[in-house]
């Protein structure tokens, strides 16, 4: 296993109204959302780092827990904290609130020819995230080289919070929709669980048999 895995789990869950990391979308007997992300990461890495604001609340997770590098700075601070301690040159980054990331898409990202500093897919919703992210890059499902750490810390020092900003400062490559749809035809890998409606949508998808 030649890659680390960084799970970003520092969100405040404002729109959910409860700690979404503890949601059990696979039923009462299933894993919590964050547990599920760690289980998924173990398939491809023996070096799993979880970046979050309350590591003391998750001491039972089979992963190394690190505190976000800068308080109240969003996932960029979590990415910095993870890259600072990962043991491999490259790290796959997963947001814990992307529960339906397809194994085939992860494998395609891992197989993409290196070297590069970062590799991220283009989301299926086009420019819906403009103006901060006009290319609709998905930086929460991406591979980062440790060389990205300097650019990320530079952004944090300047008060920049958008994950896409350091991508403009490094050698970044992008996986176009016509490429990744070979591995995820329905684009379910990009469904974020941000509110109760999202959670219910994911539950219905899982119940319909479309999972990994």
Description:
With 212 residues, this protein is α/β, with parallel strands linked by helices. It has a single domain, classed as Spore Coat Polysaccharide Biosynthesis Protein SpsA, Chain A. Helices cover 28% and strands 16% of the residues. It contains 7 helices and 7 strands; from the N terminus they run βαββαβαββααβαα. The chain has helices at residues 33-42, 75-85, 103-111, 149-157, 164-167, 177-180, 196-207, and strands spanning 4-8, 48-52, 64-67, 90-95, 118-121, 141-145, 172-175. The chain has a 7-stranded mixed beta sheet with strand order 3-2-1-4-6-5-7, sandwiched between helices. Helix 1 links the parallel strand 1 and strand 2. Helix 2 (75-85) runs antiparallel to helix 4. The longest helix has 12 residues, at 196-207. The chain is globular. Mean pLDDT is 90; it is low at 127-131.
